[in-house]
């Protein structure tokens, strides 16, 4: 059904029964005081006047029954009721399965579906049977022009089986499903385009197509991942911006893969043609046809290819509304930008200026995510991200999803890439409405966008559009697609582009002429040629300075992270005050009450309290905090307990929300059981709100394995590739306690292997005070040039180890130390022959072993714990080594296998600083393919052996 078939209809046809009564009530209020009703109702009442009386439909039904019954004879016939019921089933089937017969494929090439359930014959209904049934008995909202059941069935089939494929039957909420069906049946074409809008749509389609053909002819052999075949995506995004801006959104966040990105950048984000042409013109090895992931298209070894880059644009809707559009940077890991964009959106919606949870205004920002059809069905990150839809810590008031469906994944047919009938079927499990639309029907595409935006505005939930088109070229413009899809591409040679199809439509209606169409194409090409000429006349651009990959020699700026002791004492007291009507679980209350004297003379502060005090003092500084993870409210190891539960009422209370000193929000959420999507969300949240200390905590450190793409493509390299700063904190529980290979290692070696250009800080701490100061330093560095992610190997057994607890003075007077030297060692430097360097838990265990051994003289041995592994604390290490003139050996001690942990990172750095003649050697487990033993007794034996070897003179 094209968008101009049905005349514009009154919106009151979308309401009946109680809903119509509600609208009448709103109208009565409006007549007394227009400002007393929602602005959207004000607008409808001004345009359409009073709604109709509620008995309209009922009276038509009664009249129909009387007419059909002729005094009651037919109506009393049981066979009539049977036909009536069957007709109702037929209507339900048309609504539910009409999409199977819908004309949504521009090329008509698809597997034929079984559509017998849509035919009257299946229910043994004849035309005469249906003609005898009043239309309103089987279609409550039938237009006045539809009189009987036969006309109703024909019209409904017309609606549900032409350019739209509606799938709403899986939507559980009845009010939503009824609204969706009524909108499809009576409201879809309520706002047809006028002549000016149609001309603008044609012009945009000409721009989209001309841009691709201009690049193809001008930069022969260079990849661009053309949009051709789904050109309507650009006008659809234009319409989304208009609709959502009109609804008051100040930010629109977009995410998409590389196909069509250059076109979207040019026409939706407003990136100048000249800038894009320059990136093609001056690519240093453009004639070598570099591969998709190479840096050849970009200048220098850093940065990213142009079809991965994002952009920002501000557009004004009218005179008062200004909307900022953000297209997120995205690597070739196609769908991994999804949670990042959702994180952007939630960050833009949250107000973090007051204590308590950040308050979300879902209308202030919206997410629009474009998917590939093969990737939507194939990538696991998709369902992980769809799952955010209704979760308190992640929902954003509804994401609009568009599957840019060209029906091929690289060279793979749909039948080989998914088991579902449609690529969109995954969304059904999340109750997301789906509309499939033909990419060659421009006005139908815009009608779907309006439906999606109105649904999001009304119900604050996700909506999915499956834009079915094709791919005019191969996977890239250097690829020959006929080697794998010969029949398809033979047909495509003769298939008109959508701009030509739409021009033919408008010409046939007399709205534009052939001459006007050709003139429009000429104007667009002249604009592009002019931009290219300017690029050529400007000459070769100057090569930018490359970032050196040499390790920096400077230290992080000195930041005061200590807090006066009276302040700490006051905060600690306030943290133990709970509402009078709130009861704390008895066992937990006793544990928390032990903290009362922690900051008094002789007190000790453990890891959990140090963390809570860091959060509290950061909030007191006016810095908002967001922390999420699978068990972050309590903490996997029950050390945090920042959300308390009343054992009698089940109520919740977070002490940091009622802290008198707090001047910013504290948002803490237990996350869904996924890592990639949650970490991507938190990264996006932090990038968009750099003032917030954002923390993601893995349940166990090795669970970060499941988020490796986010770590590799965004967190580790985002600043180098996209100049995208983040201060995200990753807490990764790490330590060998005999729990087996899956819960021991956070894979420290991987983060050290990726460490370069000061892209992040990697730390493995051994005292509570160190954690306090490092968190406060990280918070202080947000929004500065020094901001970077913090990768922290957080403890497990050390959480309650008394050796990790710190004195109060360490918080009120101390500072973070990249290297710690336990007291009582190295007091006679001339006698020290062995220097042991280590990091994390093994250092604490070594100290305990040295105290417990019968040998009390350790003058020949000195131990230093490397708390910050990267950036490497060069100055501290050199100072320590330089104190011992008779040093014979430097030992690196670790509990991880030799090919894991920090050894391969530390070895060359230690050797380069070791005095001449000093041996550098490794003490630890041998190389292994598995991180740790699965047997506790073997672990204990190994641990004792390596500690004994380190202490053995």
UniProtKB/TrEMBL annotation:
Alphabetized UniProt keyword annotations: Coiled coil, Glycolysis, Oxidoreductase, Thiamine pyrophosphate
**Single GO MF descriptor:** oxoglutarate dehydrogenase (succinyl-transferring) activity
Q: Which cofactor does it need?
A: thiamine diphosphate
A Pfam family assignment: Transket_pyr
Family annotation (PANTHER family): 2-OXOADIPATE DEHYDROGENASE COMPLEX COMPONENT E1 (PTHR23152:SF4), 2-OXOGLUTARATE DEHYDROGENASE (PTHR23152)
UniProt key word Phosphoprotein: no
Would you say which domain of life the source belongs to? Answer: Bacteria
The subunit field of the Swiss-Prot or TrEMBL record says: Homodimer. Part of the 2-oxoglutarate dehydrogenase (OGDH) complex composed of E1 (2-oxoglutarate dehydrogenase), E2 (dihydrolipoamide succinyltransferase) and E3 (dihydrolipoamide dehydrogenase); the complex contains multiple copies of the three enzymatic components (E1, E2 and E3).
Q: What is this protein called?
A: 2-oxoglutarate dehydrogenase E1 component
Tell me where in this chain the Transketolase-like pyrimidine-binding domain is found.
605-801
Enzyme nomenclature, EC number:
1.2.4.2
Q: Where is this region: Disordered?
A: 46-70
Give the species: Paenibacillus mendelii
Task: Point out the gene that encodes the protein.
Answer: odhA
Similarity comment text for this entry: Belongs to the alpha-ketoglutarate dehydrogenase family.
Residues annotated as coiled-coil are: 514-541
**Protein's job:** E1 component of the 2-oxoglutarate dehydrogenase (OGDH) complex which catalyzes the decarboxylation of 2-oxoglutarate, the first step in the conversion of 2-oxoglutarate to succinyl-CoA and CO(2).
Q: Which reaction does it catalyse?
A: N(6)-[(R)-lipoyl]-L-lysyl-[protein] + 2-oxoglutarate + H(+) = N(6)-[(R)-S(8)-succinyldihydrolipoyl]-L-lysyl-[protein] + CO2
